Structures are given as C-alpha cells and as structure tokens.
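hey so i finally got around to running both of the ones u sent me last week. sorry it took forever, my laptop kept dying halfway thru and i had to restart like 3 times lol. anyway pasting them below in the order u listed, first the sequence line then the structure token line for each. didnt double check formatting much so if smth looks off just lmk and ill redo it

first one:
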Amino acid sequence: MPIENRVSRPAVLCVLDGWGHREETADNAVALADTPVWDRLWSGEPTAFLNASEEEVGLPKGQMGNSEVGHMNLGAGRVVRQDLVMIDHAIGEGEFDRNPALAGLVAALRTSGGWCHLMGLVSPGGVHAHQDHILALAAALSRQGIPVRLHAFTDGRDVPPNSAPGQMAHLLDGIRSLPDVEVATVTGRYWVMDRDRRWDRVARAYAAMALGQGERRVADPLQAIAQSHAESVFDEFIAPMVVNDYAGMADGDAIVMANFRSDRARELLTALLAPEFDGFDRGALPRFAAAVGMVEYSSDLNPLMTSIFPPKTLTKVLGEVVSEAGLKQLRIAETEKYPHVTFFFNGGEERVYPGEDRILVPSPKVATYDLQPEMSAAEVTDRVVEALDSGVYDLVVINYANPDMVGHTGILEAAITAVQTVDSCLGRLEAAVRRQGGVMLVTADHGNCELMKDPANDGPHTAHTLDKVPLVLVNGPPGARLDSGRLADVAPTLLDLMGLPQPSEMTGSTLLDRNALRKAAE
C-alpha cells in the first residue's frame, strides 16, 4: 500500500530513449555531452539504476533490451515474457509443425499451387526478428512440400553495420538441404521496415518483392551484399535487389511475416494486403491464398491475416489502473516512439483507456537522424509543458527519441548533439513539473548512445547495449531515497507516488525507500 499523505499531481514519467549508463567516457555520447541539467539532477536528487535487458525484462540471457520490451515492462509493472523467448521455446517443442495458422496456410497453398513468400529480418539481433526463426519456418513449410521464396531483410542496426555476409551465409547454409527453398530478394531494413509513412522507401521494397523489379538483379544473395559493400552501402541501406529470375508474387501465393515486433512490420504488410491503399501505386495487387504473421501487427491488419502466436492480454497495467481510478493521463512522443508510449506501454493493446489523451508530434522527414539530431524534441517539450501548465493531467508519459534514434546512426558527434538537445528540453520539463508541484521519474528503456564505437572492431556501434539505465526522482517527497531495481518496478513506484494501491497483477516493487520516508516524516 502507498504510504499515507504522499500524493503528487501530476506524476510524470520521462523516458530518455536509449540513454544508458556506462562508466567509461570514451565514445560515450552521454558522458561527452554538455548536460548541465542532467548533471544537476544526478548530483542533487535521489538516483538509482535499473536493469533493462536480459532476464530482468523477459529476454534471454545476453539479449539487449529494446524500446518495445522496455515500454512494455515500464507500463506493465511486471517482467513480461517476450516473444523472442516464447518463439524459441515453441521451436524447441516442434510447435510450428502443428500450428493452426501455418496448417491453414499449407492447406490453402496445396489448393492454389502457389509459393509461400517468407519474409523477415535475417539477423541474430533478436529485437525485431531472429534469423533462426526464419529458418525454422522455412523448414516447417518445406516439410509440408510447400515451395518457399525468401525475402531477406538485412539489419546493420541491431547488429554491426557490415555483418550481413555472415548472417546471409548462415541463412544459406540452413536452407541448402531444403527442397525448393530459395532467396528471392535482398533488401536493407531502411527500405522495408519504415514506421513513419515514408512510402517512397516502402515502394522500392514492394517493387522488388511483389513485382520482381529491384534496383539490380544479382546471381546470388551474397553477391548483392558484396556489391553494396563495395560501394560503401552497408547492411541497413542495401537497395532492394532481385535474385536470379525471380519475377514477383502471383495470384494464389501466400505470405508469412517472420518479424515478431509489430511497429516496423506494419507498413510493408499494409502495402501487400490492404484492399484500399494510397501510399503509392501498387499496380495489380496479387490475390493471396493466405497471409500469416508470427504475431498480430495491428487491428487494421488482423482481418487480413492470421497469427502464429495470438497476443496474451496483460491486465492492470499502469494506464488501466490510473483510468479506473478516474484520473486523467497523457501520452506524448514524436512519431518514432509514439507506438511505444501508447500501444506497447499499454501492454500491446490498441485501445485507449477512458481519460487517456495522446499527442503525436511528427518526426522530421530526413534520411537519417544524424542529419537532424535535434529531431522534434523542442516541439514535444512545447506540447508537454503546455499540457502540464493546464493542470488537467494526473499522469504524463513522455518519450524523447533522440538518444536512441541518433545513436543508431553510429555517429558520435550527432549523438552528442542529440543528448545535449534532450538535456535542454529536460530543463524546461523539470521547471513545468515543479511549477505544478508535481513529481517526475526520469529513466530510459535501454542503453544505446553511451557506446558509439564497437570495441570488437573499432567501427561504429549502432546497436543497443546491455548497460543499466539511470533513474532520477525529481521533486519527490521530503527525505525520499530510491532503491535500484528493474524497469518493471517503475509503474509500482509511480502508483506509490500518486497514492494509488498497487494491483496484485503488478509483481514489481516500489523503489521508494520506506524507511527513509518514515524518518523524514518523524
């Protein structure tokens, strides 16, 4: 139960996306940036560290956290077993061979005589997909006599930027013994996994996959990668290429999406499946016999495809508890992280709770965010300060995308600018919280920009990290101290600060040191 007489309004959760903690200062954008606001808060307010990766957030040992996982744990108030773990277990148990969604697809293809187009991110990164899941799906379909054409997305973002040759070799080794399983296209994730309605990118990937019209035609997948690398175009940005005589998708074919993270799979699937679509001219849309996804991707796509793993509902997440208490809440972020403070923070649910408002600030339309590391942080801050000054909200959840999105570019100077931009915005946010007599928790969902050079090869480090993330309590109760914990402890801590009881479904713990608070109250 919350300690009596300690109710703060509004309570603000500020997520500095990708802002991890690392003691070493070399190649550390957080440490190298000029951050007067952060430095003052870190030295003068209660602080702690949170685990944001591996088993502490429901991932396998050695697996870095990510924004989807981080926000689910932050909002759920419990460790949420992640899709990566669930799918690995299902493969180990042979469940693909008896899965109803896959069985339905196989039956449809046996009737139509078409190909199965299996697509996904060929990467061991485990953030959006895993290459071994693609191999397991290919093997399961091949065992049923289904011809498979693979559409391989190269990573370079959640893994080193020039590591695709090894990943593609792993894929080719895995399918070598599978009859009628071939790689049809190779495309960098930049083109095929957009989430900001940059349809010009998706159109180029669609042309290769659906129409067989790539930027070039190559003899084999490794050649596609080698040619791009020779032109200093690395994995994330490899232009869509067609392999051998692949001519596109046809009526009676089927598609399987292997990615298990929804946000960067939706646009491609919408282009392939939506009857009404105005993003670009698709030409004649194939009449697919079936469409299956590893998971559900959106309420709009659900009527158009089935899922191998339907979602498991999380109840009594933070947004639901606050809503049931009759309180008002706001979620705000720019486009790149808007799904995270809404869909993922609400436990993977699309619905908006009563009393929940949302503000989406458009992300800038640039090719890569090192070109504009400030992103839309200033406008996000303008809107959230206005909302706080209105006095309407009891809970505000805000995300600053810069440290993560610019960290993914691997460009240290740009990441430093991103951190400094967020620090300036944090000062304005802090002032607004204090004006209202509110309280704020500042933390991150995972690490990223604190490591900008890969220690293994001295190249750019573009992936997330296993580092802990900081936690700061701003304008907290007198005498407050924080215990260290994990992301799942943030929601219980916010409920404690708001004077709301923690539901039994939340198995995290408040990080407020009760002994310190009692002593301060004496």
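and the second one:
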Amino acid sequence: MEAAKTESLNFINLGIVLNKKGEVLMIRRVKKEEGSGGAVLEWAFPGGKQRYDEMREECVKREILDETGYDVKSIRQISLRIHPQILVTIVYHLCELNSEKQVAEPREPHEVAEIKWVKPEEVRNLITTDLDSKVAKTLGI
C-alpha cells in the first residue's frame, strides 16, 4: 500500500544518458516486460516511475542513480508519449553525467541484471519495442 501512496502510475521517466565517448547507457531488466503485439522489453534506457511529490527531472536522476550508480542531470525533455506497445506514458530526458564514474553501487539488483554502455547504432538492436522517433533523432540513428 505504501507504493500506492508514493508512486504516480501516470509517468515513467527514462534517461538518455551519453558519456564523453558518445555511448548510451542501457540496462537489461531482470524480468522481461511483455507488451501488445508480442513486444518484449528486455533492454531499456534507465529510469522509472515518478512519485507524486517529485518533479520529472528529480525522478529520472533518482531512478538512474538507483539502477546504475551514475549521477546524472536532466538537460532537457526529448519526448513525451504513450508507448504504443507497453501502454504507459513515457517521458524521455536527455541527461549528462555529473561524473564519468559510478558514484554509488546500483541499489536495484532485483530489477537490473546488467548495465552497459553502447554505441548509438547498437540501441536499435537492443530495444525490440517501438523506439521513439525523437529519441532516435537525438541519437542520430
């Protein structure tokens, strides 16, 4: 019941995090999520559910730190959409690293099986659901 008080089911905030090499931060989920049309979400951009008492930028920062151990700052919102296959509202943020190194141990091993930096062109191979067109444009893919 506590989660119902603190989490807003309306928004999932995801971070498009780039390092100095231009690589994109990705996570592999412990549990694959199934969507409509046979879509399966295994690899994803880090992020998560927004709490009622926090701003979107705070949410994406908190979630990325918890999932990956990286401290980031949201630079701007790239896109907001209802995902056609997973049926949630997703807010995509372009984020920069406050430090190139992990500042903490990831705290969500029950959710994240692997953390990986990939070249932008590899994102399409990892994300098997519909990739947001504005995110693709931001990544140049």
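quick thing i noticed on the 2nd:
The chain has four helices and seven strands.
anyway thats it, ttyl
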